[in-house]
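Service request form, structural biology core

Requester: graduate student, group of Dr. S.
Request type: structure prediction, single chain
Budget code: on file
Notes: please return the result as structure tokens.

Sequence provided:
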Amino acid sequence: MKIIKKVIILLLIVFVIAQCFGPDKNEGHLTSIEAFMAETNPPEDVKVILKEACIDCHSNVTKYPWYSKITPINYWLDDHIKHGKKHFNLSNWDGNSTKRKDHKFEELIEMVEAKEMPLNSYTWMHSEAKLTDKQIKAVIDWAKMVRLKYALEPKPE
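Core staff response, request fulfilled:
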């Protein structure tokens, strides 16, 4: 019994010390997504969806929930955010070619249509991010319009 008590105390000490460490926060300004919003011109209902279901992990602007202060959860969240930004970053939109932007929207359509985005692990704690069929249709319709716009743009020679 003494060994179990010592192990529990040691684990508690390690847990408390771990709280002093954590990854850097992904906290930019909403202005970082203005170029994306201006170029893609989402309707108001899609803007709300983007805000509630996408921006936290797919931009340089994350609103962190209370539990993000707990190590090791903060590292898990950081990994999700880095992974999300790697695949689709609304904050770095200007630096992409039209071909890449079109490809990102093609992926967006596939992921939303397959209900793979937003992630279930995100919607567990953010119920407002769980998309209805109507919201999915709105996002897909908007994304298809954006892709059409990119297809009609003149190609560099």
